[in-house]
Specification:
The structure is a homodimer.
Chain A (H helix, E strand, L loop, with lengths): L2 E7 L12 E7 L7 E10 L3 H6 L19 E8 L9 E4 L6 E5 L6 E3 L16 H14 L6 E5 L6 H10 L3 E6 L2 H10 L4 E4 L6 H11 L4 E6 L4 H7 L2 E9 L17 H5 L3 E4 L9 H13 L7 E5 L4 H9 L6 E5 L2
Helix pairs in contact in A: 2-3, 2-8, 5-6
């Protein structure tokens, strides 16, 4: 059995998450029992929701237990199997956590899924054809419900979720406008992903300037907003919403380290008769098959593009994760383990 | 033709609305043309939405034109008719505005409706069996959609809308909790209207104390919130919402004179997967018949109670309206003109 390097949650953050909240250890992988398989992880997924799990507060996510391996999505290869449905060499996606190997009870529903890597790269199952892609698909299709010709705005537009939101919006005949941090990300969002416009929020540090930029990018107002960020960006977009607009609240990363995120003009929800709805994609598993079918087809045919930031080695996971919280990633943040 | 005393909007408020924004004038009522009727108003309705119309800002309500009679709902009696469908003596409800008489093109759809006053008092058509009642019915039935056993909270609970929200919630098998200003209103809400609890927000001037009182009144959390007020009350209730809760945003009277109403923890919309939706009842006319049928039956059978604050004479309308904005009314605010 190989030695298995793991990252544990050692202690909880007070304010900003820091590297010393995590601890790298080495463990042995136990021998397989009947029904189990041993998976060697090729990629580990890093996602903003993990920050919430580091706290001990009441939230939608069960807190990550201290002293345990940080949970998270993984893709990899079966290297040993005592389960008749899985063979050595199978490529699989699961929740293998922040470690190099995992022993999986592969018979448990949803624990492990074989994936096709002929047409879709393995890492994409952690991004555009995985949880982030389905998050984009669900929030856009089921909460925003955009009609052709409407304007869809998404924050964190170059990220794993936002990049899919905008491209799906374009595929549905909408005007897609992104918000992203920095000229490189904005150029990518427009030139590579095909958004109609992208606003570099870092170039607009005050609310008035941000509103003005948004106004120029959304001449017909905003019908749908897909929120990943919160704070001043939420306020600015709220001011541009059209009557009967829909806002899918997917994330508010600007507040994940405890920063206050006041919404200054909630009365706009009333005056513009808006629907503002929060959601967690894991609570809507019934929609995953339809979403993954559409997303997989779009990726396989080259119509849905994505970009990855890849950190090397399990030991790099904490710093890569902290960078993700600060927007240092460019596209889906992964850790490559093989 | 009788002289017709009217209240005009003379100038727009800067900050708080004040009595000098209005002007009392006397006009002659023109002779009737074919199809028209002359209505003598018995009661004029005063409603919070009118404050929004006094501004010239972009809002859901078209601004009230300066120098024109303030718009508003009225009930009264036909005293002259050149329309075959209306006879002298008919009791009618319409949008007769802040004046003693109105000449109505009675053939226009929705302009004038005959009402039964055998089983329902005429004034109730401006309250529980009128726009405020339908507002309560729509927000509760179509946005909150409470299930039996759930907890419904409503602010401005003794008012024209809030009082109906809580009583309908009770009729649907819910726990109904109100928020109102002062011990008299709270006692009325519990003892007369049958709410399970009512919190006097004036007795809890700080957010912590208000939250604690709300926590005690909602031991199982809050599933539905019907928002009429905004500000610190919205924040407090948001902190008590259960997962998948629904918030119908009907009004935010705390900000109608321009006060800031920041929402301090909008991230709770995400973490509790809430739906927050604003609405205007006049945009959902298709639901009025069903709503009025239920509300009329409940009032006629004594199962839906209401209370009125009645100001005397058209000249009292401005002060009564300003009092309504400050919560000085107790129940539906009317002006009696006959």
């Amino acid at each position: 059995m190989p030695a298995n390097q793991q990252i544990l949650l050692d202690n909880r953050p007070t304010g900003d998450a820091v590297a010393s909240n995590f601890k790298l250890v080495s463990a042995e992988t136990p021998a397989l029992q009947d029904g189990q398989v041993l998976v060697r992880h090729h990629f580990l997924s890093l996602d903003p929701y993990m920050r919430g799990r580091m706290n001990d507060a009441k939230s939608y996510a069960v807190p990550q237990a201290l002293g345990q391996v940080m949970g998270g999505g993984t893709v990899g290869e079966v290297i040993e199997s005592k389960n008749p449905k899985f063979s050595v060499g199978d490529k699989v996606v699961g929740m293998g956590a922040w470690q190099q190997y995992s022993v999986v009870d592969a018979g448990q529903p949803g624990a492990l899924r074989k994936v096709d890597t002929k047409h879709i790269p393995l890492s994409a199952y952690l991004g555009a054809v995985g949880m982030p892609g389905v998050t984009a698909w669900y929030g856009l299709s089921k909460i925003c419900e955009p009609k052709s010709g409407e304007t869809v705005v998404v924050s964190a537009a170059s990220g794993a979720v936002g990049s899919v939101v905008g491209q799906l919006a374009k595929a549905r005949g909408c005007r897609a406008v992104g918000l992203a941090g920095g000229p490189d990300k904005c150029r990518y969002v427009v030139e590579e992903l095909g958004f109609d416009a992208c606003i570099d929020y870092k170039a607009h540090p005050d609310a008035k300037s941000l509103y003005q930029a948004l106004k120029e990018a959304t001449p017909d107002g905003v019908d749908c907003y897909f929120e990943n960020v919160g704070g001043v960006i939420f306020d600015a977009v709220l001011s541009r919403m059209n009557a009967f607009g829909r806002i899918a609240v997917c994330g508010m990363i600007a507040g994940y380290d405890g920063q206050p995120l006041p919404l200054l003009q909630p009365q706009l929800i009333l005056t513009n008769r808006l629907k503002v709805q929060g959601f967690i994609v894991s609570e809507h598993m019934e929609h995953w098959p339809a979403a993954l079918t559409e997303l997989g087809t779009l990726v396989a045919t080259g119509k849905l593009k994505f970009r990855e930031s890849i950190a090397q080695g399990i030991e790099s996971a904490p710093q890569a994760f902290l960078g993700l919280l600060k927007g240092k990633n460019f596209g889906k943040q992964l850790v490559k383990l093989v």
